[in-house]
Amino acid sequence: MIPSNPGRRERLRKAVFAEIHGLARHLLVEGGPDAVTISAIARAMGMSAPALYRYYRSHRDLLAALASQLYDELAGRIALAGEKSGTATVPLLAMCRAMRTWATAHPAEFRFLFASPFLAEASDAGSAFGELFLEEVARIWRHKSFPVPATNTLSPALSEQLCAYSQRTGGRLPPVAMHVFLNGWVRVCGVLNMEVLKQLDFALADAEPFYEQTLKELCAALSVQYLPVNR
Amino acid sequence: MIPSNPGRRERLRKAVFAEIHGLARHLLVEGGPDAVTISAIARAMGMSAPALYRYYRSHRDLLAALASQLYDELAGRIALAGEKSGTATVPLLAMCRAMRTWATAHPAEFRFLFASPFLAEASDAGSAFGELFLEEVARIWRHKSFPVPATNTLSPALSEQLCAYSQRTGGRLPPVAMHVFLNGWVRVCGVLNMEVLKQLDFALADAEPFYEQTLKELCAALSVQYLPVNR
DNA sequence: AACTTTAGTTAATGGCTATACGAAACTAAC
DNA sequence: GTTAGTTTCGTATAGCCATTAACTAAAGTT
């Protein structure tokens, strides 16, 4: 006989959520963000559309949950790559590579996460990712400070903002070092955004070598050793 | 009496197109890309929705026309800034500034142009802009070549693609110089994309000083004189 | 066994794209 | 000036979508 353990209902509910997420993601990959409709998901599940409102209060909420899930997946991959990187190598390199690996393996998801009109208004789309990489750069800085531009080469307006950000993040990096970090972050994100949005196709058939070259230059700027990908 | 000149119908038609474009853009700015619907435009015009199909064969076509119009506007601003820049200064600087000026003045349009799921699949979204700036860098190169990385520091896979692109664009820039150009282009686009997509808010309240610093560094890389904005 | 909660149904509203068809207006040729 | 053809618009319609309301059946609870 089957015992009616108390958590059963929740387990079933969880399974339905999982099914919804899976189908939503599948639709996103196959047909873009506009294809992720409540109707389509319900249809694929063999359910009526209004039934899905037992699980999400609105279409928006469903998309938000999907975004959050993808966000966690990417953040997880990056964190995992950082942890797994051997003691000899710098975690930052592995994290940057993990980010691109995920982005190119899942372009639709990456676009949805970073360039969707849906999240654009919600602000700070990828701020937490920035923090993730900032912490790594701060670790490198603590270990051995890298060269920074002279303070007087930065405009007062910029210095002021860098100081504020430095303070806001607990002074882990001095303002001028913060500029080095931001520069690198913009380059990494820039290449990834542009590659996924196909804004580099006009010049490069495959952006991987260019990305690696960028990482090499960033390692040089941070005075850490660059190691090629091990295959 | 009113003469029935032959061009009248075309004039009216042109006016309707202009009205559609204006309303479409207004809706884009006010409510994002999803607000640009045939119905909403028709409603604002006091027309029935099907009537708009006399002007555009589909919703997609309308959005494509809107994108093309915005594209032309931005390209025009950039070209104009390049022409108007005084003989003492480098056009490239003015063009980069014009691009950011437009982007920040019209964030909704810029997002629609560069980060919309609509154009992402259509490929080479902003390739022509890259060409625009490439020509400027080539002009600088012809005038006085800037320092380039040693060929052996670039991976063969990257060198090969740079060679191909160099050839494809008429050899205006040698492959290693092409890498310098691409690096700069990624940084400029990266900052702009991230600023408009609010991916820099976590660090910078105002991205303008950071953008100017980026331009300063690019000028240094291209061995041209950086001039602050004249006010 | 009675009550409550949960998960699903159908029906209905209103917005959207898109097509088909008809009426009016305009154009041009006779 | 009349007539035939073209262009532009409206109405009607079909199909998709989100969302709500009312209802039902099953499962869990007491």
Beta-sheet strand percentage of chain A? under 5%
Give the overall form of chain A: elongated
Low-confidence stretches of chain A: none
What's the helix-strand series of chain A?
HHHHHHHHHH
Q: Note the gap between the termini of chain A.
A: 52 Å
Outline the biggest β-sheet of chain A. none
Q: Determine the structural class of chain A based on helices, strands and strand pairing.
A: mainly alpha
Quaternary organisation of the protein chains: homodimer
Report mean pLDDT of chain A, rounded to a whole number.
93
Which radius of gyration of chain A do the C-alpha atoms yield?
21 Å
Largest interface: A-B, 55 and 54 residues
Number of helices of chain A: 10
Helix content of chain A: 55-70%
Tell me how many strands of chain A there are. 0
Summarize the structure.
Two copies of one chain form a homodimer. Chain A has 231 residues and is an all-alpha fold. The first copy, chain A, has helices at residues 8-31, 38-45, 59-84, 91-105, 107-115, 117-120, 127-143, 156-168, 175-196, 208-221.
Overview of this protein structure:
2 copies of one chain form a homodimer. With 231 residues, chain A is mainly alpha-helical. Chain A has a domain at 85-222. Chain A has helices spanning 8-31, 38-45, 59-84, 91-105, 107-115, 117-120, 127-143, 156-168, 175-196, 208-221. The radius of gyration of chain A is 21 Å and the shape is elongated. Chains A and B meet through helix 5, helix 7, helix 8, helix 9 and helix 10 of A and helix 5, helix 7, helix 8, helix 9 and helix 10 of B. Chain B binds a DNA duplex (30 and 30 nucleotides) through helix 1 and helix 2.
